[in-house]
Design a protein that fits this description.
alpha/beta, Spore Coat Polysaccharide Biosynthesis Protein SpsA, Chain A, globular, 7-stranded mixed sheet, 27% helix, 21% strand
Length: 197
Amino acid sequence: MAGSYVPVARVQGLILAGGQSTRMRSVQRPGADKGLMIWQGRPLVAQAGGYMRSQGVSSLFISANRHLLDYARHGPVLTDPSGLLGSGPLAGVLAGLLHAPADWLFVVPVDVPGLPGDLLQRLAARASPQHPAHARTPAGPHPLCLLVHASQAPALEAFLRTGQRRVQAWLGHVQARAVDFQPESEWRNLNAPADWR
């Protein structure tokens, strides 16, 4: 039911760092991995982990498919489920749901530093087991700033195994609820070299 309270003690955190970082690659950085790159003195994954802990999650995992030992220095690592490697960020979400010791999974991408301090609180006020909640600003949706119930795992797996990968399509399929935030600089996505400059 909308407006229900999600106890933080029943929320697991997941940092999405399983992509290929193709837009960050160059001759100088052919194997670039955004989550391990330094932003304001620390790797992005460390910043994301600190943010998640400040939100009070009960446990924290990292979705990654490369440089596993490097990521493991920052928390337990989950790889994409069997047969779904390279199926996009939803495969990482599914891995988190399948390994969730908690009822709820709070997801953030590794490349959006400095997220709002009330993100989890406001998503929790709108999410229900049947309907995940995600962030949205006037500039557009942030579909991977997401709170989703563990009971969604079978349906998400079925969705992915049909070959579908689009996050927005899945959110529409489950009638996810958008939570509006004001546009602020912290929503900047560090996807490409120009974003870092």
